[in-house]
């Protein structure tokens, strides 16, 4: 019973799934334009499921789904109600794991969906509207480009635009916005912080919260391999194979066991994958028996890893990075290094140690603390309070 609760993953199929099929051909329009929308369910809020236009890693137009959730409580001010883009924690790779489905009760993901709801509730509790993206390929047909920097930045920034353009939400088209996310979402939020000025310069981004960001994929290829969270490395390889077809990971590098794992992993939600692939070594999945980390100094992986490292572009808004010292999935030094890289470029950045009740399972436990910290910090930004950057330390 407990295992079933943790793993979950059963999809409740129904007519509503038709919403996730994009029109063919995809309509022309601007990034963030709403392709279609429909009412969705969320307690004490008005929720709208949306499909909107965005761009993938290669700058090709794609259809992405998500939610716009406006709390029933009035916004206490000052100014118009802010919109916060929520970049989700790792939900999985199967379409039934898409947060816009699980948050609305349309589909059963797994225990990770509780983390998603907790983060959204913390933001709604402050009176913010929430614009939640499913990212590329999670919900609609296609593969999810997991932790791919450019695609995830685009989908996060465009869901804000889509929220501002969704009829019936009462949200202004040019109001204040923020961005928040943890783990995969921390990476996506940080990527959006770096690309906002060039990709979406019209957005009035008051601040970005990034928790436990997987900013350095090269280091993670070493630390995740053979670990409890080896599934996240497998997800990242699927993300690379999706975003960069020239990598030919599945076609040329994977052995039969590797191809089988990839096919299975594409249908899983987070906890199912963690339990299924715990302590898996990638050297057992490649044709030549080398671990994934051994390829990263070779073409095209050296370029791909460099393109997906976060910290190379100065964010144009205040940023807060938090990371648990004993994080057991994404090493603490990765988040701290990203913040330092931003500081070195003159960003208005702050880094904090993320408190967790226990060092055991610190990565998962950290999200509960992160949600409240993100909501409180963004609330101060919307109130016009100065951010307390600590780059001098």
From TrEMBL:
One of its GO terms (molecular function) is triacylglycerol lipase activity. Pfam families: LIP (PF03583). GO terms for biological process: lipid catabolic process. This is Lipase. It comes from Streptomyces boncukensis.
